[in-house]
Amino acid sequence: MKTRATNLRVRFPLFVFVSEVIIVALYAAFVTYDDQADAKFQTNQTIPMNNAVYRDYPVFTDIQVMIFLGFGCLLAFFRLYGFGGMVFNFLTATFAIQWAILVQGYFQFYYDGKIHLGVINLINAEFACAVVLISFGAVLGKTSPLQLLVMALLEVPVFAVTEWVVLNYLKINDAGGSILIHLFACYFGLGVTFVLHRPSLNEGHAKENSSYQSDILSVMGTLFLWVFWPSFNSALTFKGDDQHRAILHTFIGLSASTITAFALSTLLNKNGKITMADVQNVTLAGGVTVGASVDMMISPAAAYVLGMLGCTACMLGYKYLSPFLAKRCRIQDQCGIHNLHGLTGLISCAAGIWAILVADEEVYGPSLYEIFAHRAPVESDPQLEKLQMMIPGLKPGLGRTAQEQALFQVAAVFSAIGLAALGGLLTGFVLRLPYFASPSDDLCFDDRLYFEVPRDYDSPLQINNIMMEDTSA
Amino acid sequence: MKTRATNLRVRFPLFVFVSEVIIVALYAAFVTYDDQADAKFQTNQTIPMNNAVYRDYPVFTDIQVMIFLGFGCLLAFFRLYGFGGMVFNFLTATFAIQWAILVQGYFQFYYDGKIHLGVINLINAEFACAVVLISFGAVLGKTSPLQLLVMALLEVPVFAVTEWVVLNYLKINDAGGSILIHLFACYFGLGVTFVLHRPSLNEGHAKENSSYQSDILSVMGTLFLWVFWPSFNSALTFKGDDQHRAILHTFIGLSASTITAFALSTLLNKNGKITMADVQNVTLAGGVTVGASVDMMISPAAAYVLGMLGCTACMLGYKYLSPFLAKRCRIQDQCGIHNLHGLTGLISCAAGIWAILVADEEVYGPSLYEIFAHRAPVESDPQLEKLQMMIPGLKPGLGRTAQEQALFQVAAVFSAIGLAALGGLLTGFVLRLPYFASPSDDLCFDDRLYFEVPRDYDSPLQINNIMMEDTSA
Amino acid sequence: MKTRATNLRVRFPLFVFVSEVIIVALYAAFVTYDDQADAKFQTNQTIPMNNAVYRDYPVFTDIQVMIFLGFGCLLAFFRLYGFGGMVFNFLTATFAIQWAILVQGYFQFYYDGKIHLGVINLINAEFACAVVLISFGAVLGKTSPLQLLVMALLEVPVFAVTEWVVLNYLKINDAGGSILIHLFACYFGLGVTFVLHRPSLNEGHAKENSSYQSDILSVMGTLFLWVFWPSFNSALTFKGDDQHRAILHTFIGLSASTITAFALSTLLNKNGKITMADVQNVTLAGGVTVGASVDMMISPAAAYVLGMLGCTACMLGYKYLSPFLAKRCRIQDQCGIHNLHGLTGLISCAAGIWAILVADEEVYGPSLYEIFAHRAPVESDPQLEKLQMMIPGLKPGLGRTAQEQALFQVAAVFSAIGLAALGGLLTGFVLRLPYFASPSDDLCFDDRLYFEVPRDYDSPLQINNIMMEDTSA
Questions:
Q1: pLDDT in tens, B373-386
Q2: Cβ contacts (< 8 Å) between B254 and chain A: which residues?
Q3: Out of A33, A87, A456, closest to residue B274 by CB
Q4: ipTM of the complex
Q5: Which residue in C38, C81, C446 has the most chain A C-beta atoms within 10 A of its own C-beta, making it the best mutation to test that interface?
Q6: Where do transmembrane segments lie in this chain (chains A, B, C) (predicted)?
Q7: Residue by residue, what is the 3-state secondary structure of chain C?
């Protein structure tokens, strides 16, 4: 009966085909091209090389590599779950993006009765996708592909609503997505894994380990993420000096967290050796930690310090907090997303608030009111006109003070965490429905369940068995 | 005698050195820089950042990754032919590109007695190279590196002539290269493999299978191709909204075909499991299927449907048509290029023709005559001047109707298939010359024949042997 | 005692933390944003899309991939040192870049009491990093991570001083960095390895070999380098046609050296088989060889010939010179950097000098004085004004003749080699301090020493052992 319950043959294609029919119907009814992609809107004034595609597409391809190769390789670190890690990432990402185009489209790109599509929508959809993939990290190896698609189906709308509420009502600064991407994804994933708790896995699992090749593959994933992270953190900043700073800070933050990770890895290992899981994950902490203040004038040294702090928190989280959460709080966080995205995200938010509080015209010049758009004077304020002479195109803001803006940031952190955790818990309950074919405990972290595997699939283990027999003989 | 006949030591370097001497002589005699790369053509009006290199180079690097890493990893899926797949791809691609620079240069970039070279030539040459690599897929593992170079030597000119005939005489729309790249490459490859038919391989071959690592590597190749395919399909479109649409359609098409491939893979497998070969190949079908209409106003929903259709045809082809072709038609199509490039290419052409037939000014505005350049009024038509006021720089066309253009597309499909098949058959006969060192049947799919292999080369098999002995003992 | 002497637990984190405190203090004291990244410098005249970040960042990401994935995979070719190759590359590169930002910043980007930081600094720092990584190739597998960081700590300033002397006093042309990057890195690395000579390794080492998977991984590294090398060679040229030519020449040079490498590999192998080490290294020779003249009007054919020559020198170096250097000169050059960077670098310099000697206004037009900036007339020369009408913004030069410029190039070659070798020797002596935890001879090329390794770490060897036992039994 067990094997039947996890057989995908009917239920998985059925789910996909029904989804596809619904998606294609919604695309046909609601999705059209935006002005930059529609032939009809091109006039004799149009300069083709000024099309938005040339501004957005380079960033988009960088993020594509991160999503499909970066996450794909990184998640393939289990010895017997390399197919699952890389391939379910591919499946889930693709589904999440095409679904996010619709859901985010409704909230962000909907006017005249249509969702208007350009490469900028794809960038936004890949951010929504990154959220799903981070949450996936919490339940890696313990979920069927059908469960993953259902998770994407539910997480994307919860994320899109949270994004819409936070950006439209709370109006915050979060260029690198520390609040909306990392914190949201983390607490959603923890909510899901809390509900999907498997008591028997607390003692560890025979297949819950890596091989020499899978460790190397996973480091390649880390490197793809590392190399293009500046594009991720700067994709949605203002163009010009803001984006320039976002790139510099991300690079410096990552760079500081990388060497810190190596140092802490040897320091915390009883033999003074480097642990590959640290290289694969903790090195990246700096990319998250600089996120919330990534486009601000925080100074290169501050980005460096943020990288060190984030890395340290992340490393201590892996070492001490994750085991505690697993044993005491029923939270089995498979890839440690609470360390790499949660703790670092919180530090990032704190740094963002600090950066907002200290921001003044002396450092930023008049462009203070461009970066902190909600601090710009309101429409009726005579100050606005003066500023608009120095920054053409400056939009009226809300006249917030730095303190007010900081409070809204705090509100956003709590809203994002609250909505994410709630959404994650509810999603977890849905995923427990037997129809979604959750793997049995002993077939977790095992490609055999969902893939036709080649003959040599389990050879390293077999060798060890042979050798042990040899030794015992 | 057999080992001597496949020994490359003399004949391979000889072929390469002779080719190099000829190529370098032709470069010296005929290849110079184009206006954008020649120091002499820079005046005090030149704005360096307007150089064409900044428009073409980003697309070029994306295609570079596809050619060398995408194809390279994808073709390395055989357990004992990983070196061959990746390294012969490297060799063949490099040779094909430097040769295509000359041959295509003669047809497309030749004036004032010289071939004029810029990055745009390299993009075109990489397309010619993609053609050779697709055809290579039909004979993977069954050809010596010398045969591959000879194939590139012959295929590039046949392709360049076909391209020149189709673009200059039939004057068609084929932005994504469905006709000129995919159909041509497919039927050329099938022609070659038909002639190189090996009866003994119809029963399968002990080495014709993958390993756990090689399957993962091959998926990485798929991901490189997937991620950058929008650049491939949009490289030679008009700049501006046309290129923007090409990117969107390719992404949506790939995205639809990917989730369809997963669904069909589980549906058609008797255990409801995913087959890695499907993940490696069928997911990509959508990229080909949107090709012929990729820059047109087909709507995002249509791109989605094309992705689904292409994927379904491709999957059914792998399941039912390929075995039939191998058994009944002497066509041993090693990587199933007829499914991924042939069937999908035909659907793409049909979709392109449909898109041409329904295209009108209401949807496209005046830029209809830019995208469908051959439908623009002829030089003497007073209509032309009116259009030129709305689209500065519009060139006079042929005044074709939509129906006429559609017929020319049909003619192009048949010409491309015919010339490709004929070229492939003739090339096959040349490749059978004993001098070109074809591997014997039992050393197909085996790196030992052409490479110094490390000690652990065949270890997974050895383990299995040990284990079988153990079991039998 | 031996294991204690190589234990990193205290000394490695200590070194890293002390470095970080110093680096962060220096960043805080001296590093600020450059005009393109500083909010305060944006005025109502600023056009965000004209920010230098859009010119520099695409090249930067290409080089990022080369440094972290290209070098990382390439250096992971040892069977039991895959972690070391890829991960120490990651560590060393990150440390070198953040250190180079300071050191190069002091020499090149320091004014008003501050180092001014933009993406252009990161590109320069990645070049300094490439220097360190090339030198690393000479001692791969024989150095602790602590030694590598110390090497980076010392090499970066020696490099920055050499760069500053050569560019500011000798004022040379070296767009692709043949002198400053390749020759410097090579002779520095040889200096280090000369001092770190290990007599017992001259007989070879049981772990000094590759596995099937590691060979494939290493080829992937080669392909990453190959694909993006045109960006590397053209990153710091003049914009416009100069950069365009640099891309073309690099591509052609690599392409010629690749097929030559395959031909020579089969020719020089007694069984006519391809050696993977040649595919991994010798194919890349052309990228170095075109370096010194990469932006000049040398003609595409000359780039092709340079690729062939460089490849041949490199291949013969691997075959005959490296063993000689190891046996007779105490120079154990692990990755053969003397072949890939030294010999090719020398050819490149010779070609650069030849290109300088034959350069004239007939071929280059007035932009001769832009490319060869030091040949431009001096400030007071009336000729200057005439030229400035044809090339707006041409800066006064030194009025050098071609012969004078050539002599300065020669002086630069000798200075770079001399300073590099001296710096390398001194660095070698520092690295021999016992504190830096050099591995013992028998634990060279072995990940176990510095990493927690998974169970299957040494399985291929184990299999062979089993099999040999089987055979002997």
A1: 999 999 989 999 98
A2: 94
A3: A87
A4: 0.95
A5: C38
A6: 12-33, 59-81, 87-107, 119-140, 146-167, 179-196, 216-236, 248-268, 301-321, 342-359, 406-431
A7: CHHHHHCCCCHHHHHHHHHHHHHHHHHHHHEEECCCCCHHHCCCCCCHHHCCHHHHHHHHHHHHHHHHHHHHHHCCCCCCCHHHHHHHHHHHHHHHHHHHHHHHHHHHCEECCEEEECHHHHHHHHHHHHHHHHHHHHHCCCCCHHHHHHHHHHHHHHHHHHHHHHHHHHCCCCCCCHHHHHHHHHHHHHHHHHHCCCHHHHHCCCCCCCCHHHHHHHHHHHHHHHHHHHHHHHCCCCCCHHHHHHHHHHHHHHHHHHHHHHHHHHHHCCCCCECHHHHHHHHHHHHHHCHHHCCCCCCHHHHHHHHHHHHHHHHHHHHHHHHHHHHHCCCCCCCCHHHHHHHHHHHHHHHHHHHHHHCCHHHHHHHHHHHCHHHCCCCCCHHHHHHHHHCCCCCCCCCCCHHHHHHHHHHHHHHHHHHHHHHHHHHHHHHCCHHHCCCCHHHCCCHHHCECCCCCCCHHHHHHHHHHHHHHC
